Amino acid sequence: MTEAELRTQLVALHLELPKAGLVTWTSGNISARASAGMLIKPSGVTFPDLTPDQLVQCDLDGNPLETHLKPSSDTATHAYIYRHLPEVGGIVHTHSPYATAWAATEAASISPIRKTAAENTVTSNVIVTAIGAPSVAIARIRAQSARHQRPKMA
After folding, report:
1. Residue 57 β-bridge partners
2. Which residues contact 91 (CB under 8 A, 6 or more apart)?
3. Which residues have C-beta within 8 Å of that of residue 95, sequence separation ≥ 6?
4. C-alpha neighbours within 13 Å on the C-beta side of residue 49
5. DSSP secondary structure string, 4-28?
6. Is it the case that residue 150 has pLDDT exceeding 60?
7. Beta bridge partners of 33
């Protein structure tokens, strides 16, 4: 896939987030691993206004390689995940009302989600990371991935 195609696909995916009720206003974003590092949504750009040329290319330390727009405030976290998990090709960061409320409760410690409806529609583990430093999120992702493998469907 060319960078232009990746940019177009990322914008299309971003437009699905508000339609699905997963974000409001400018919160949340999607990034993708790219040849020179990663592409990420710029800070403060609303989803309907986002265009492919506005996506910010950053290296895997989170430094913008172009300076026309400021990258998301979540860039350092995305970069950390890409550096430490080379198998990750993209990250979706949402702020849906229900997930945000759930994540703020003690119930969040039971992730990944193991409900029949979720298992029938989600093709891999849903991992909710702890609020905190990216290293905490990486440790939790690795621990949960090792403990919880998605059951094979018969």
Report:
1. 39
2. 30, 31, 78, 81, 82
3. 22, 23, 24, 27, 28
4. 7
5. HHHHHHHHHHHHHHHHTTS--TT--
6. no
7. 38
> Cis omega (within 30 of 0) on the bond before 134?
no
CATH superfamily of the 1-95 domain:
Class II aldolase/adducin N-terminal domain (3.40.225.10)
Give residue-wise pLDDT tens across range 63-103.
999 878 999 999 999 999 999 999 999 999 887 777 777 76
Report the C-alpha gap between 149 and 101 in whole angstroms. Answer: 25
Exposure b/e, 101-128, CB count within 10 A at least 16 = b: eebeeeeeeebbeeeeeebeeeeebbbb
Domain residue spans in the chain? 1-95, 96-154
Rounded to an integer, the average pLDDT of 119-139 is 49
Which among 50, 60, 56, 78 is positioned nearest to 69, based on CA atoms?
A: 56
13-28 burial by CB neighbour count: b if 16+ within 10 A, else e? ebeebbeeebbeebbb
Name the β-bridge partners of 39: 32, 57
The total number of residues shown for the chain amounts to 154
Residue 57: count of CB within 10 angstroms of its CB:
17
